[in-house]
Amino acid sequence: MGKSSLKEKLIGSLGVFGYIIWYIIAFVFAFAPLWVLNLPWWADMLIVAVIMFLPIIGALCNIGIWIWSFFVAIITPINAFVVIYFIVLTIYVIIYIIPILISIFSRR
Question: Of the candidates 49, 63, 56, which has an alpha carbon nearest to the alpha carbon of residue 101?
Fold first, then answer.
């Protein structure tokens, strides 16, 4: 048996409501760093388009956006968007960055 993803678990247990929750989570993950950066709407759409339609460049762009937004969030006064950003950043690091680092350093 393979691992079930969070999306599969949400849909399996909650049905259509699981889809709604999944897309809300995906939306927050996609736009959390962009909320902190506070760029013009056209720049946000350009970044999202690059991340979605150019997989390799988009992955590198995504990591760069998260790093850039981290430094902006540190110097920004605390508000709801910054708190949400730090929560999402913590989840992002646990889910994506730590497994990448483990796979890189476990081969050596």
Answer: 63
